[in-house]
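Ticket #4471: structure output looks truncated?

Reporter: J.K.
Steps to reproduce: submitted the chain below (294 residues) through the standard prediction queue, then opened the result file.
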Amino acid sequence: MCGIVGLHLRNPDLYPLLGQLLTGMLCEMANRGSDSAGVAVYGDPTWTPPGSGTVSLLEVDATAEEVAATLGPDVTVTRLGETYLVSAPASADSLLAAARAAYPQALVAGFGADVAVLKGVGHPKALTEAWGLAGAAGWQGVGHTRMATESAVTPSGCHPYAVGPDQCLVHNGSFANHATIRRELRAAGVEFDSENDTEVGARFVAQKLADGLDVETALKELCGRFDGFYTLLVSNRDSFAVVRDAIACKPAVIAETDDWVAMASEYRAFVGLPGVAKAKIWEPEPEVVYAWKR
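Returned output as attached by the reporter:
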């Protein structure tokens, strides 16, 4: 059992409140999983400076100052909890290559032009406080609280899995045939950071997006290929999509107003959102992909 939350803001007046609203949603889901948590925040001007690439790193055996000095004079490193946000006026791909060359044992939690990924082991409330999440701004956020069932409670086992540029995936449920698909992806040259089944889904979707498919088509292909029970939320800098398996036994609720779209494992995650009393609220249908774009 895990908890998923997602918030896509349509009204720019709400952008400064993204972190505050996402914190409330995530902490409401703490009892669905309190061993670890993570978030992906899109558009915070401090965490992901405009015109820069940003890489989120964990398990770095160095101080923030040492990382900045190693990677170059234009690099800025911000430590939030155990996550290092490394930014520079360069493409995210080139910055990622430099970070991997300098710190090959580090865990890459995410990368892109607009996304900051923060995750770690511990209770969601403690983690959000360590990150200062309530002070973050942006247009979109995704979060996950984990109750581990099939892989270790480590940073690499935490969601979101952000394995493509400005992409992330969070997951409640389990994939029954993830080992088979992992072998197929490895044979195609895909590398993995964990034994978590969710990472297999994230790598599968990232591969489909890299092949030129849109998010909706990629998720339809996932539904046709993966066995199991699941609710998935996938985001990138421009979209926000939700899908459930054919039986839809894992809980999920969507709420929508003119100002925002939100998704969560339980309705109570919405209670702090402005205007929720007038929101359209429904449960997503099995194997139907619901998607919104900026």
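Triage note (M.O.): checked the attachment and the full token line is present. Helices lie at 18-28, 64-71, 92-102, 124-131, 178-187, 197-210, 215-225.
Status: closed, working as intended.
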